[in-house]
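thread: overnight batch results

M.L. [08:02]
morning all. the overnight job finished for the chain we discussed friday. pasting input first so we're all looking at the same thing
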Amino acid sequence: MITLRMEFQKIKRKKIGLTMCALICVQFAWLLWSGSHPDENERLQGWIETLYSLPLVSVIMMPTIMSVLASRLADIEHKGNTYKLLNTLHRPGALYHAKVLCGLCFILAISAVQFIFVIALGYARGYAGHPEWKYYVTAFMLNFACCLSLYLLQLLLSILFFNQMIPLVAGLGGSMLGLILMYVKMYSFLPWGGFLSAAQVSMDWNPDTRVIHFYYREYSPIELCAVAMIFVWIAVFYAAGRILFARKEV
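M.L. [08:03]
and the structure it wrote out:
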């Protein structure tokens, strides 16, 4: 707890929260624009359509947001070149755990604000009925897991490279890759495509009537493996980051 408290004290003047708010507001503006004038059919399917739209927005925005978060948390030790001094204050890996927990707090706050916003937006637009909470809670947990896997990957890169432009470019590349994957298939074994694998809703578009029908998807075995891969990436990136950080301390 002391190490975690020190981590928050180190970033107190870095305005990470303000940076995250600015990036999340871009995502909110996108969601506001995408369905600003819903018709009757869109109001009837509003809650399920939201579950379809949110992963598509996240797969584009979240890799960049997580790269900024990880870079802001990791650049202090690079600037001060303090990795070799950390053993005099903490056991190996303690600071890495603090950085993971600090980032986890930000991710939890981002995910919570994101879902509170879309639920409030749904009620403000007059969507029919109420959200199906079991799907929304599942979506929240899967969204959190996807963000965590990307954060651990970006933290690993931010620790590895002194020049923080490299992990930031990797995050931007992940956003572009997510955009490409959207047009390929609705699942991916890559860490940047986890949001697509976790999407619980699919859609059918009728070219004759030009009506979109949203429905809850039934996962095939390979799609379930893609969802499980999200948690595999979390374990892999956490272990790799822990080992790398411990070696940089000595």
